[in-house]
Amino acid sequence: MKKELHFFSQLVEKLIQNEEFNPVSRPIENHDVIEQLNLEFNDEGINEQDWEKLIETVALHTPKTASKLFFNQLYGGRQPKAILGDLLAVILNNSMYTYKVAGPQAGIEKVILNKVCELIDYPTTANGTIAPGGSMSNFMALVMARDSAVKSTPNLGVSHKMTLYTSKESHYSIPKNAAFAGIGRDQVRFIRTNEKGEMDIHHLNEAIEYDKNQGFTPFFVNATAGTTVLGAFDNIEAIHKICKKHQLWLHVDGAYCGGVIFSKRYKSLVKGIEHSDSFSFNAHKMLGTPLTCSIIVTRDKSHLFKSFNNEADYLYQTDDDDFDLGKTSLQCGRRNDALKFWTLWKSIGNIGLEKLVNQQFYLAEVARKYIENHPDYTLYSFENSISICFNYKDIPANKICTLLYEEAQAMVGFGSFKSEEFIRLITINANNSEEDILHFFKVLEKGVKKLELVSVL
Fold it and tell me: In order of start, what are the domains of the chain with their CATH numbers?
């Protein structure tokens, strides 16, 4: 193992040095990548020297998600203390289903969950778990809501025509999860949004009333804290009133921007979250923890047991349910995703996490001001969002993004809202500075000049 760790250390040093001078990896065509990098297997393994060279080559050709010019996804950057925690979790290799095999790691997960519940003012009955991604967090919320609405469902299956509600701008996992849970994609009601991408409260109420009159059983409303395109926050307080009126489960999907709960300045964006029945967020997004670290909590922990517990004498051999985390989890065997978040949080504290969140909004403001002050740009975003959506010189967004990617200049994506397509710059890397954001625009403008030159020729 010492030899492999030494090689790993050398490789990481090369990667970081390469990232500094080549922040964007030049892409390989997908139909060439397997042959070009020699990824296929042979009957015999390769020698140590060739193996090390191959690993290095593959690593250097992989997209650099922590670089100063990666704005493509809803995550980015690198927090060293969190990375150390993730590496340690791999070495320790504990599964998180029982205290017997997890030991102190179970305590670490419980501390995180308890503090999150405290931050959002949930009652002492609350608890949660760490799920394998934001999509599965949403799935767990939907299953708890389904089982709460019709209590016979866990044993007898879905026997009612059930309907659920989410905005048109919500995450694509919602209809997938409806299929998984036996509700059906056709029973998902997509609620209109306003010009900011926020759920239309009046349409939500109308849709629920209509379904009730048609003999359906409405049971679940998904509110979003940070839509995937515009980064919009649904009005949780207003949605809660409707859920209370119709006795529906309210889940807040904060996978993207739920990390605002750590910021005094921006926590108001999820005002009313204490009234929700469940809440989830990804620490691997706003809080810079390595993929994946997805947390879901619910006001009443009994729902976790009712929906996800199943007795197994061969596994649960202690009497303390609170520390046998598999009894409230979607999975049995589960890697330790808590440790990397804990090592970061313990290192920088509540104030440090708050600074990470605030920095992202500051960088977003830098980007918006630059766009507003340059006549060649058109801005589609609004305040209190870290998704900066814009167009440049009326050139198709996908054309600019593809050029920057193919020329290894920058990684940024594009999106659309109400038939308008635009570039979507995500300022989620808290390691970036104002200079890094301004540098991105210079890179973009330089790339477009080349594009215009090619068009003239």
Answer: 2-65 (no CATH), 84-343 (3.40.640.10)
